[in-house]
């Protein structure tokens, strides 16, 4: 038979001896460890909006940490660090860590570290309808990157500190652009400092997509400029198997929206027949080529 007794033992080493009815005995050494481990050392890095706290202690220890910014209310971990899972606004954030030794004892108090985030807002995200166009007027728009106050500044084809234009608008139309690639740069303020810039480049030219343009949308908008004497325009696309050009559509506008998605990473060869009192082609000889983007 087994007999069980509950006895309160003080910390230290104890021997338990059990005897059978036949007089045989067994000894068991029992160590009661109630000594709390040391307070862990805690450090951190707040150079980004997703700061990281790091800590260290005795070998084999576990840890329990608390941090309101991380929604951490007594998280148990064997790791020696934690990184904020989302970006944090400017401010000071405190993380407290208790060390837990192999006996389950917690340090008497936590190690702690305050990290202060004081960073510029994130750069705005700048875009336009298409990366290339046959128009000489282009609309750029932007959205906040986060942690700004909605005031912006922009400039075209430069980041010269003397030529920023400030605005609360989130788009701008710029006309009379010359052929070439134009980049709009936009920064956002938080009332104290400006973000780094977001940017978006648009190539202006007589044809869009421009010849040998890559990473083109699978539903591109084909554009061209008016031709003297033209009454309509016929879009011709080369059949990749026969290499013959096939009529796709005839339009009177200076654009044609591809109605259904082209294959990803595909080279498309095309040209335009200019219909009028005489017939000509764009380009005058050869054809245009563009390559669609790869699958996301």
Describe what you observe in this structure.
The structure is a single chain. The protein is mainly beta. It has no helices and 26 strands. It has strands spanning 12-19, 25-32, 41-45, 52-56, 62-67, 72-77, 81-83, 91-100, 111-117, 125-128, 132-133, 138-143, 151-156, 165-167, 171-174, 180-189, 198-204, 207-208, 213-216, 221-224, 230-238, 245-251, 255-257, 267-276, 280-282, 288-292. A hairpin with a 4-residue loop joins strand 5 (62-67) and strand 6. It is elongated, with a radius of gyration of 35 Å. The mean pLDDT is 93.
Poorly predicted sequence stretches spanning 5 or more consecutive residues: none
Strand content: over 45%
Biggest sheet: strands, sense, closure?
A: 6 strands, mixed
What pattern of helices and strands is seen along the backbone? EEEEEEEEEEEEEEEEEEEEEEEEEE
Shape: elongated
Count of runs of 4 or more consecutive helical residues: 0
Task: Kindly state the number of beta strands.
Answer: 26
Specify the helix fraction band.
under 10%
């Amino acid at each position: 038979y087994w007999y069980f007794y509950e006895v309160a033992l003080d910390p230290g080493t104890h021997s338990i001896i059990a005897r059978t009815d036949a007089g045989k005995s067994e000894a068991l050494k029992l160590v009661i460890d109630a000594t709390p481990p040391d307070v862990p050392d805690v450090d951190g890095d707040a150079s980004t909006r997703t700061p990281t706290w790091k800590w260290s202690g005795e070998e084999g220890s576990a840890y329990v940490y608390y941090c309101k910014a991380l929604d951490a209310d007594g998280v148990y971990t064997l790791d020696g660090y934690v990184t904020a899972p989302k970006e944090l606004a400017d401010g000071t954030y405190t993380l407290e860590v208790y060390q837990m030794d192999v006996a389950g004892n917690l340090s008497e108090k936590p190690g702690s570290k305050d990290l202060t985030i004081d960073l510029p807002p994130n750069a705005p995200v700048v875009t336009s309808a298409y990366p290339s166009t046959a128009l000489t007027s282009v609309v750029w728009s932007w959205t906040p990157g986060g942690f700004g106050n909605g005031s912006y500044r922009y400039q075209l084809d430069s980041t010269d500190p003397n030529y920023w234009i400030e605005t609360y608008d989130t788009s701008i139309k710029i006309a009379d652009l010359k052929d070439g690639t134009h980049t709009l740069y936009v920064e956002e303020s938080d009332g104290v400092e400006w973000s780094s810039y977001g940017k978006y480049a648009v190539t202006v030219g007589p044809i869009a997509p421009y010849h040998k343009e890559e990473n083109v949308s699978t539903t591109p908008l084909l554009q061209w400029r008016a031709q003297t004497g033209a009454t309509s325009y016929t879009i011709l696309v080369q059949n990749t198997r026969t290499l013959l050009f096939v009529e796709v559509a005839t339009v009177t506008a200076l654009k044609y929206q591809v109605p259904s998605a082209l294959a990803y990473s595909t080279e498309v060869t095309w040209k335009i027949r200019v219909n009028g009192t005489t017939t000509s082609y764009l380009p005058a000889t050869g054809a245009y080529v563009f390559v669609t983007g790869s699958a996301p």
